Amino acid sequence: MPDILLIQPPIRDFYLTAKRTVPYGLAALAAAVRQAGFTVRILDGLATRKTRPAPLPPEMAYLAEFYGRPDVSPMALFHHFRHFGYSFAHIGRKAGESGAFLVGIASLFTAYSHEALETARSVKFFLPGCMVVLGGHHPTALPADAMACPSVDFVIRGEGEVALPRLARALRAGRGLESVPGVVFRRPDGSLHVSPPAVVADLDGCPQPARDLIDDRFYRRYRRGSTVVVASRGCPMACSYCSLSRFSGIPYRRRAGTAPRHSPRSISPRATSARISATSAPARPGVSPRRVHRLSARETAGRMMRRATRPSSGGGRFGPPTPTWSERMKVMARWVSQSGSGKASLSM
User: Fold this and answer.
1) Residue 54 has pLDDT above 50, yes or no
2) Structure pTM?
């Protein structure tokens, strides 16, 4: 019986890409609470092939007349709106069986925030004595929206590796929560205590994510294992629409890229056969953050060009390159190398 249960909710959408749903954040949180002396389990609502048609949400009901017939295109992505993952009732029952005193639910994207709240309602129904905390980009940006749900007891804004262990300790000891970084809770008068987002000051001090709690069978690619390597957090760019821009309150930080503990072999015993997906630009001593991102974009475009124009009998994965296609790739390479300078333009 774990002390803490961490849940990745199911989602409802037209399609699902499994490689984008690896619960890396929950594994990082699990490692942090383990280090603090708590037992923990991950309940991944997406680690299954289960899927079923779902009604369109009211905001998208007008699409029914356009998608009323089967999609005969090769991809057929946008025909049926579906529920991907386990049912909310199944997740609630599993939470009830766990007996955890604290249940954390990931709510990464506003588009899927309803699924996170429905998960919270189900958990409270089957495990009424537990405390439910939401974390992720959505409650970080809109904590009042998440706390409007009676089934949500707390929100953690920002990075939970620091906040979640301290919240668990405070709840266990019956202490006040004001000192917990990033926490949002209801005061006795019904108003909200909203803390600034929590930030991990030293990324290299975080324990390795608890990969052993993730069901890797669902996230295998090309019959091989896969993993995630995060070399930095936050972003130095100023995109107004992004929840992680430099205006988000989450500063840009980089790991010490030379530390051997961040090698793929140290991530998991199974990582030696994994395909590594880099999600952030690695640190480069003496190079500014923006310059790092521009260099990474330029190198990525260069690799794509070399791969696409590499001679082969069948023309390679992308087919035989044509002058027009090659020129477009060169334009893209120029554009990504200038990104962040305010002077980039794209014309094809």
Assistant:
1) yes
2) 0.75
